[in-house]
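Good morning N.,

You mentioned wanting to compare the apo and holo forms, so I went ahead and generated the holo version with zinc ion. This is what I fed in:
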Amino acid sequence: MQLYQNIHSNFSDRKVQDLNGRYITNAHILPILNRLPKGFSYEIAGHSERDQPIFMVKAGNGPSKILIWSQMHGNESTSTKALFDFIFNIEYLGISSFLEHCSFFIIPILNPDGAHDYNRFNANGIDLNRDAQALTQSESLVLRTIFNTFKPDFCFNMHDQRSIYCVGGTKNSASLSFLAPAEDKERSISSNREQAMGVITKINNVLQLFIPDQISRFDDSFNINCVGDQFQSLGVPTILFEAGHSGDYHREDTRKYMLIALLSAIKCISQKNLPKDAVETYLNIPENKPLFFDVLIKNVSVEVDGKTAITDIGILYEEVLTENQIHFVPKISVIDCLKDYVAHRFIDGEFEALALSKNKKIELGATISHFLINRGQFTLFINNN
Ligand SMILES: [Zn+2]
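and this is what came out, ligand included:
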């Protein structure tokens, strides 16, 4: 437990300082790759559709082979930050034995074009997580070639999820979510899938100590075009990691918990300490539910289509890249009674009228950065960090 306490207490000093916020590209990671600690090296594993290098970090010479990739979706960068925090803290945390028991192939940014554009998709507008069977894109082929030649014992498929998810039916944000993807339509529990479930239960046990009731499980419907499902069906225990919202939009807090998740996963693989009979424990982790808004204005009087009514307004931030920075633009997502929903920020309208600055209308999709309710001024800006 000391391992996790140590990084938890000292994280702001220990994280890789030159990676910050949501916009992480090849240009951000290259200087860091050029000063990797002892025992780590990097190479170019292949190229993207726009001919950008896909970097891969290698370390360790142990028998348990772990293949990890992040930013398959270009705008999902939290795990990329956590992976570099892992690499740069092995010595500090006294876990060099991980490198004796495991071998790592780590692809920090699988989709460098999407990362550059701050886009989920690659340069051709393809979702690489639906291309695992057809393999039409260079990035998919790079990952599959590495999978075939490295022959991993475990795969970590690292993503970010939107801020809309709660844990089961609770009011808790899903700070992190996990999945042992299905490998067939019947969602059979094969031995490799059970191993993935076992690793997740270990991660969950550790995270519950730091962020209780903020961990959930993703839906396991099967899609062979998804990389996790594909690799699971090829017999390799594969774990989906999803970084979610735990209070800050720049995901520096989630980054810390993702690092703890990574450490706990690698520790149990390194020590060959996978639990037996993990299925039930795994299935007891609550499922994700999409019930969160970023902001929820309750009981406000608004004029919609010429009629005045008391209603609720659900707002979601849209992440927009401008001048190399991500801006969180608040947009009206739903205007309706939202009594069963929760939010990261609640504003009680107290049945008063909501007023926007002039020429602005309350309608779906409208940007709502400032507004007045009963002479109280509200702003929904998120500060840059
Ligand atoms: Zn993703």
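Residues 173 and 233 are 31 Å apart (CA to CA).

Happy to go through it together on a call whenever suits you.

Best,
F.
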